[in-house]
Amino acid sequence: MTAIEFVQGDITRQSVDAIVNAANSSLLGGGGVDGAIHRRGGPEILAECRKLRAGHYGKGLRTGQAVATTAGRLDARWVIHTVGPVFSRSEDRSELLVSCYRESLRVADELGARTVAFPAVSAGVYGWPMDDAARIAVGTVRDTETAVTEARFVLFDEQAYEAFTAQLR
Ligand code: AR6
């Protein structure tokens, strides 16, 4: 059984086995959560991302996939980078967002991570409406079989926190 927790705050301040990053397919950093993780985690994370790009991920990480690196100076063992879909009104991309959470949990299981912090993937720069992002995130984690014992959603602001907690009410 995975316990689902909600926290309003900064994901880079969490003490967990793995922190999920809302990355982009370049794996080379960006704004939002991604920028914050690389800033606080330090250059070790980017160095490992560059190695991934030089190896198996030469074309980048595909949308909906996930891959782990060190967590550098963060209070975690791993960062699991996943690439959310850009929201589209004309095309239903929700299966790709479902995949981000499933794949992140699969990678967490491979690593042996038991506590995992998630941001609201795709709900910032990528434009996904928060209520729908919350529904997909919580529903997918709840319905995925995993050895992770705690999935902690870390929401940056009150609106996001409210949208996520509403899913379990
Ligand atoms: N802790 C927790 N949540 C945060 C933090 C933080 N420190 N900072 C922002 N958020 P986003 P995306 C929230 O844009 O939509 C990057 O440039 C934020 O308020 O980080 O998947 C990447 O490189 C929002 O609710 O991710 C990609 O290019 C949520 O995290 C692109 O943005 C996700 O916002 C990915 O866009």
UniProtKB/TrEMBL annotation:
Keywords: Hydrolase. InterPro entries: Macro_dom, Macro_dom-like. Its EC number is 3.1.1.106. It is an enzyme of class 3 (hydrolase). PROSITE patterns: MACRO. SUPFAM superfamilies: Macro domain-like. GO terms for molecular function: O-acetyl-ADP-ribose deacetylase activity. Residues 1-169 form the Macro domain. This is O-acetyl-ADP-ribose deacetylase (Regulator of RNase III). It comes from Streptomyces umbrinus.
